[in-house]
Amino acid sequence: MTQTTEAPTGGVAARPDTAPGGRVTSTFAKALNAALADSMAADASVLMFGEDVGTLGGVFRITDGLTARFGEERCFDTPLAEAGIMGMAIGMAMNGMKPVVEMQFDAFAYPAFEQVVSHVAKMPNRTKGKVRLPLVIRIPYAGGIGGVEHHCDSSEAYYAHTPGLTVLAPATVRDAYFMLREAIASPDPVVFLEPKKLYWSKEEVDLTELRRTFEAGQAPRRIGKAVVARPGTDATLISYGPSVPTALAAAAAAAEEGRSIEVIDLRSIVPFDDETVCASVRRTGRAVVVAEAPGFVSVASEIVARVQERCFHSLAAPVLRVTGFDIPYPSPKLEHFYLPSVDRILDAVDDLQWED
Q1: Residue 187 has what DSSP assignment?
Q2: Four-residue CA torsion sign, 50, 56, 58, 62
Q3: How far is Cα 135 from Cα 220, in angstroms, rounded to an integer?
Q4: C-alpha to C-alpha distance for 40 and 136, rounded to whole angstroms
Q5: Average pLDDT, whole number, for the chain?
Q6: d(Cα 138, Cα 292) in Å, to the nearest integer?
Q7: Which of 2, 82, 209, 321 is most buried, judging by how many CB atoms fall within 10 Å of its CB?
Q8: pLDDT band at 356 (very low <50, low <70, confident <90, very high)
Q9: Nearest to 176 by CA among 254, 79, 242
Q10: Active-site residue among 150, 151, 313, 336?
Q11: Are 219 and 179 in contact (CB under 8 A)?
């Protein structure tokens, strides 16, 4: 399936339209909005709250129309206090509700981090499973939108390092819908990372059909399941979330040079799908991990370690990484130097010891 990315228009998510031939297109943002609405319609215990998610519909309009449809008791604004938002969500989840909270921007979630680590991640274990926390923490994250610092962090490593949390990062419109619905239906806490630069990407999907498929139990499980986004034979690019389209573009460029590059979309960071990743690397013998976050002590580092431990005898070259640099996120005019690019990925592929 093909995705295209458009520049935002005033931060408002584009509505679905009809493509030539009657095919339906939807944006990543609209798929998330539909997943929230469908989950709230299917289960009265699902609530949506956070900063500006009510009347405004969220900074990126992901919650657009939910207050009008479900009322202020089920989709509402909170004070600008992330620790308070998280504490309230914990209490609600402990008492039978299914809260979905929006942290507005990646780095805005840090004031709530102590609540996440000390309570959200530990409560089921602390109570020997007697108290479950079915809550979803939605975080618009990563760069590529020309945002300033505190608006473009890739914070997945903090959450992935914390046992007790499921950590997801969809990269396609279809996965955005199914994975958010799956996260809301989960009995355990989920950190749901939404790549901001993909909010305006489009895909030909029928959201009504996606709802029918999910509610009929016919949608394949995505939590803990990676997918081959593009098949190949010469090397594997392993990525997730905002870096998947870049990896796919690099694979397409490599094909023009005669190299067949496979792309793995992890989708689920925790739990991690070792089986799909390692099967790909064993087939190709070479691998590059692509991620926006700084490379030191990162999710990318963990992937490299897992692959080299499990696939050592199949590797023709060391597993390499193309990541953000180990610096604070740069100013908007410089972010294109910081983010993984097609050229940087192709340079890494060229370094995979082909002469051997």
Answers
A1: S
A2: positive
A3: 21
A4: 13
A5: 93
A6: 19
A7: 82
A8: low
A9: 242
A10: 151
A11: no
For residue 69, give both structure tokens. 């449809």
What Cα–Cα distance (Å) separates residue 76 from each residue in 64, 134, 192, 250, 263?
12, 19, 19, 42, 40
Tell me if 158 sits within 8 A of 191, measured CB to CB: no
Q: Residue 148 — pLDDT band, cuts 50, 70, 90? A: confident
* Positions of E strands within the chain: 17-18, 24-27, 46-50, 75-77, 98-102, 136-141, 166-168, 190-195, 202-204, 227-230, 235-239, 261-265, 268-270, 287-294, 320-324
- Residue 355: the pLDDT is 80
pLDDT per residue over 16-30, tens digit each? 555 554 468 999 999
The identity of residue 227, as a single letter, is V
76-96: per-residue pLDDT in tens?
Answer: 999 999 999 999 999 999 999
Assess contact for 267 and 222: CB atoms under 8 A. yes
Q: Looking at the predicted structure, is the pLDDT value of residue 194 above 70?
A: yes
* 185-199 exposure pattern, b = at least 16 Cβ within 10 A, e = fewer: bbebbbbbbbbbbbb
pLDDT tens, residue by residue, 101-138: 999 999 999 999 999 999 999 999 999 999 999 999 99
User: Is 321:330 a contact under the CB 8 Å cutoff?
Assistant: no
166-168 and 287-294 strand pairing: unpaired
150 is catalytic: no
